[in-house]
Specification:
With 84 residues, the chain is of the alpha+beta class. The chain has helices at 9-20, 60-78; strands at residues 2-4, 24-34, 42-51.
Amino acid sequence: MIVPADVRAGDALRIIRTAGGALLEAVELYDEYRGGDLGEARKSWTFRLTFRAADRTLTSEEAQRVQAEILRALVEQCGAELRR
């Protein structure tokens, strides 16, 4: 994801945990990239997300739904955009 340079990783992690709810078992900031075509006003983050339900096997649709909710929250709350 791409975020404005002034967004703090701790804030993004809090947003991810809240939006991920009970199905998000773990989140880790895996990589940060600055520079290049991003310019000075933006940076790119890669997060590793682990989803799990204690009582059943998750479907890919359930995991995708939670991912979409996390992305929506990051877009709304910290101006993120998905890096393609």
